[in-house]
Design goal:
A: mainly beta, 41% strand, B: 336 residues, mainly alpha, 2 domains, two-stranded antiparallel sheet, 4 strands, 2% strand
């Protein structure tokens, strides 16, 4: 009888062990924050390939492609502590896998601001400064005398002041002529109280803001801006208003 | 009851044992599976090559892939091999519009219309199953192949997956990285560009020519699809044929420019016979259309409007991309 009980216990222990081995970990660890990068034109979600927007210079335009780097993304808490989200993130409007970036294992805290660099700083923005992936190589800035990567490729079409002649525009930003041209962004948001739970922070880029505020960007005459520092400076100044926090929510 | 527990315990133990057991030894004496790992070597300035973890590179796999590449047994009637259309002396391309098999280890999209995407294993499986429609019984009944497949993949039944994996392993080694251009950009090589080549380089890598946005990087292709303005009414046999999206009309895969002087004629339909004709097109023949790529930002002017001297310089630069070490490499040649 004793032997019988021992066998029973052995079998039960074996099955229990097998089940536990396959069981998923419980989600009761530290919290997480997801940064979601969305894009708008004048507050509305971008409609790709639709010449429906009107910029301050008077042209109607469309958005076709958009890729850009954000780097040194950090979240800051009320108590003064900070956590690094990611060193470099390449966002491609056509690639959903780049839409979000989640940082796990976030310590409990009251997070209330985010900061990042638009583009890459001088230590990263050198030839071979990023991992040699095909995606990064496609962002190279090979202009003789310069180095590094495009910070942004914002491409589309425009109707030049209603003439009906559709032209293409390329707003390609980066470091040129010895000027770095990246800029820092810091934005407060309503508190995300992380208590072993997950949150999503929507960061929005309004593409129309690249074309105004404080400078009017006129597509005409801007066909080649990669070696045009005046155009790069104009865009850098406009860049100060392109980002906003669209929402902060607990998942 | 006691017996029932005993049998249950034995069954579970046997199940665990069988789960962990290595595959059986081959039924054919003299066959062994002890492959030698193969390391693909390429320059540091090339991107990180993408490998398939289900298809580790081995000396046996690469050599088998090379044999398959040149063997007409892949074709049901024995009419052609991969190499029939992909000629090493022409950078593994050929007339009229065959895309070259060069540096495929970094490709993620394949064919002019992007019908296949993924890695080389995916495109080779397409070639074996859909293009050749290979009769694999010929391989399974062959005098030498069964042993070679066993040595490479530890299989006694050859499938199209095994054939595609061998071909993929070979093609990952087919790397062009020793052109005159590669030597010029390598400090200490002692190779310097002519004035014409240098001018062409400046046109290529600035917005003057703006070639680099599609044909940039060390691979001279962005692996993407573009409508480069060949036709005012873009044709529907490119990417749009696959996606069904009218926004993709006239879009074709960016071919690499490595060995471009060897791969005439040019464009997806082979409409240009020489590099000079291609440069003339980008200078003055570009046709705006609803889906033309925004990168063609001088399309409303017909193109980049080069002078005759600039055209010559650009062609001189393009010719620096010819790699005769590659086209003469015995490791890529016909093993039969």
């Amino acid at each position: 009888m004793k032997k019988h009980t021992f066998l029973k216990i052995s079998i039960f222990a074996f099955i229990l062990f097998s089940v536990l081995s396959c069981k998923k970990d419980e989600d009761n660890g530290p919290g997480s924050i997801t940064i979601q990068l969305d894009h708008t034109v004048k507050g509305d979600p971008v409609e790709i390939e639709n010449i429906k927007y009107t910029c301050q210079a008077g042209h109607t335009f469309s958005v076709v492609n958009l890729k850009y780097y954000l780097s040194e993304i950090e979240l800051h808490a009320k108590d003064g502590s900070s956590i690094s989200v990611v060193d470099v993130h390449l966002r491609d409007i056509h690639d959903l896998s780049t839409e979000q970036y989640t940082v796990e294992d976030i310590p409990d805290g009251d997070y209330n601001s985010i900061s990042f660099i638009f583009g890459l700083d001088e230590t990263t923005n050198v030839d071979g400064g990023l991992e040699n992936t095909i995606e990064n190589i496609n962002m190279e800035w090979p202009i003789p005398g310069d180095q590094g990567y495009h910070y942004m490729k914002f491409e589309g079409r425009y109707d030049s002041l209603g003439t009906g002649v559709i032209r293409n525009f390329n707003i390609h930003t980066g470091a040129t002529m010895g000027n770095q041209n990246y800029f820092e962004v810091s934005m407060p948001f309503s508190e995300a109280a992380v208590r072993s739970n997950s949150w999503t922070i929507n960061v929005s880029m309004d593409l129309n803001e690249w074309l105004q505020n404080p400078n009017t960007y006129d597509f005409d005459g801007m066909e080649m801006i990669m070696m045009n520092q005046a155009a790069q400076e104009l865009l850098k100044a406009n860049g100060a208003s392109v980002f906003s926090i669209a929402s902060v929510r607990k998942n | 009851m006691k017996n029932l527990y005993f049998y249950l315990f034995c069954f579970l133990s046997l199940f665990i044992y069988l789960s962990c057991k290595k595959d059986a030894v081959p039924t054919n004496p003299g066959w062994t599976y002890d492959p030698t790992p193969y390391t693909v070597e390429y320059p540091d300035n090339f991107p990180i090559m993408v490998f398939d973890e289900d298809n580790p590179m081995t000396v046996e796999g690469v050599e088998l892939g090379r044999m398959l590449y040149y063997d007409t047994l892949l074709h049901p009637n024995g009419d052609m091999a991969c190499a029939s259309c992909h000629d090493q002396s022409l950078s593994f391309a050929s007339f009229p519009t065959v895309l070259p098999h060069v540096n495929l280890g970094w490709n993620t999209t394949f064919l002019w219309n992007g019908k296949v995407s993924g890695n080389i294993e995916d495109i080779m499986l397409f070639e074996v199953d859909d293009f050749f429609k290979t009769d694999l019984t010929k391989f399974n009944n062959h005098e030498t192949y069964p042993k070679l497949f066993y040595e490479a993949f530890e299989t006694e039944e050859i499938t199209s997956v095994h054939a595609s994996r061998a071909l993929a392993q070979f093609l990952r080694t087919v790397i062009s990285s020793d052109s005159r251009y590669d030597k010029i950009i390598t400090s200490g090589s002692g190779v310097f560009p002519t004035e014409e080549e240098l001018n062409g380089y400046d046109i290529f890598f600035t917005e003057r020519g703006d070639c680099f946005h599609c044909h940039g990087g060390i691979l001279f292709s962005d692996n993407l699809f573009h409508n480069n303005g060949l036709d005012a009414e873009p044709s529907a046999n490119g990417l749009s044929e696959i996606t069904g999206d009218p926004l993709d009309l006239g879009k074709y895969k960016t071919p690499t420019l490595r060995n471009i002087a060897l791969t005439a004629p040019y464009m997806h339909d082979g409409r240009f016979q020489t590099l000079e004709e291609v440069v003339d097109f980008y200078s003055d023949g570009v046709q705006p259309s609803a889906t033309i790529d925004p990168l063609m930002k001088q399309a409303h002017n017909g193109g980049i409007n080069l002078t005759e001297e600039e055209k010559d310089d650009l062609v001189a630069f393009l010719k620096t991309l010819t790699d005769t070490t590659f086209t003469n490499n015995p490791a890529f040649s016909n093993p039969f």
